[in-house]
Amino acid sequence: MQRTPVSSSNVASIGYDIASHTLEIEFNNGQVYQYFDVPQAIYESFMQASSKGEFLAQHIKGAFRYERV
After folding, report:
1. 5 in helix, strand or coil?
2. Burial letters 1-26, b for 16+ CB under 10 A, else e
3. Distance of CA 35 to the CA centre of its chain
4. Where are the alpha helices (DSSP H) in the chain?
5. pTM surpassing 0.85?
């Protein structure tokens, strides 16, 4: 999956697959996680968020199934 680098103290890059609604997050420590059944609107809001870590904690973690890649 193609990811876009972002400016964040916690998140290195973010990718999204529209067909499968899969959000992929690479953290600054090199770990990559995929979150499943994420609406495109959440991805778009995540990309626009001034604090990626805060958005992740409030809107993604605990809300979607995930796995470490």
Report:
1. strand
2. eeeeebebeebbbbbbeeeebbbbbb
3. 7
4. 40-48, 52-55
5. yes
Q: Which residue type is seen at 60?
A: I
Residue 43 and residue 36 in contact, taking contact as beta carbons nearer than 8 Å? no
Question: Could you tell me the two tokens for 6?
Answer: 């972002």
Domain map (residue ranges) of the chain: 3-68
Residue 24 β-bridge partners: 15, 34
Rounded CA-CA distance 43/29 in Å is: 21
In angstroms, rounded to a whole number, what is the distance separating the alpha carbons of residues 39 and 29? Answer: 26
pLDDT in tens, 5-59: 999 999 999 999 999 999 999 999 999 999 999 999 999 999 999 999 999 999 9
